[in-house]
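Students often ask why inverse folding is considered easier than folding. One informal answer: many sequences map to the same fold, so there is more than one right answer. In these notes we will look at a single instance of the problem. The structure comes first.
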């Protein structure tokens, strides 16, 4: 499409949005490759199957737009508003979505491989079966997002918020989850082999059947979580079985058994929570012995 044709469609769409006549933008299957659409208002527009490869949509408003099967490979969508947009099956490989707002967007089966989603807001978004291999999601907010069966292999999720997200069966192999917030997340059957979990917060996360072999927890290499227990104040303890031995993760602490006993004796001695902490360590110690190991 020519610049003039695009401008005419946008003008009509603006009138439609303002209920002043005009008509909804229908750009289905349109060729908008490399188009300059910076700040354009295409909210609610029909862009099904459109070719937006390499287009500049920085700061554009695409809320509730329909982009099913659209090509957005390499496009610039930084700071764009995509709230409620339908991007099912769209190709966003290598796209720049830094700081974009994608709350409640549909990205089922979308290709986001190597895309930049740093700082993006994806609360409640549906990314089931999406391809996010190698994508940068550092600092992104994915709370309550659906990532069932998604491919996040090698993705950067450092510092991301994945609270209460559903990652059941997702591939997170070799992903960076350092400092990620995973409280209440569902990771049932997820593959976390080789992932970086240093300083990740896993309180209340469901790790049933998750594959953890080779995951990095601080400077140790995980084999798996042998036991977990929660104190009456909701403070959760994890017993990690690592190649280097057995370690207790609780809050920001990652200690071997001897150091753990010393810490909770020194800091909680003579208190109900201190007694509970030592009871949990006894429970962990018994599990280690049953495993044939030594704390």
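Output (designed amino acids):
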């Amino acid at each position: 499409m020519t610049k003039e044709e695009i401008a005419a469609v946008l003008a009509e769409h603006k009138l439609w949005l303002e209920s002043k006549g005009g008509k909804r933008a229908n750009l289905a299957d349109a060729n908008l490759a490399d188009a300059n659409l910076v700040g354009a208002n295409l909210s609610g527009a029909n862009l099904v199957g459109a070719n937006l490869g390499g287009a500049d949509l920085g700061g554009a408003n695409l809320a509730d737009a329909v982009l099913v099967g659209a090509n957005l490979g390499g496009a610039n969508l930084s700071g764009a508003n995509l709230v409620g947009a339908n991007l099912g099956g769209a190709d966003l490989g290598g796209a720049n979505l830094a700081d974009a707002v994608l709350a409640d967007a549909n990205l089922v089966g979308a290709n986001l491989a190597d895309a930049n989603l740093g700082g993006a807001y994806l609360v409640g978004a549906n990314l089931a079966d999406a391809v996010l291999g190698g994508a940068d999601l550092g600092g992104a907010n994915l709370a309550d997002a659906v990532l069932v069966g998604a491919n996040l292999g090698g993705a950067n999720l450092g510092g991301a918020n994945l609270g209460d997200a559903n990652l059941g069966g997702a591939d997170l192999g070799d992903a960076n989850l350092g400092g990620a917030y995973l409280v209440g997340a569902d990771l049932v059957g997820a593959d976390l082999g080789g992932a970086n979990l240093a300083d990740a917060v896993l309180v209340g996360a469901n790790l049933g059947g998750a594959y953890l072999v080779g995951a990095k927890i601080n400077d140790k290499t995980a084999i798996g979580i042998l036991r977990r227990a929660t104190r009456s104040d909701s403070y959760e303890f994890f017993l990690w079985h690592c190649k280097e031995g057995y370690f207790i993760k609780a809050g920001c602490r990652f200690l071997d058994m001897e150091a753990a006993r010393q810490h909770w004796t020194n800091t909680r001695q003579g208190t109900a929570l201190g007694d509970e902490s030592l009871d949990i360590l006894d429970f962990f110690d018994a599990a280690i012995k049953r495993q044939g190991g030594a704390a």
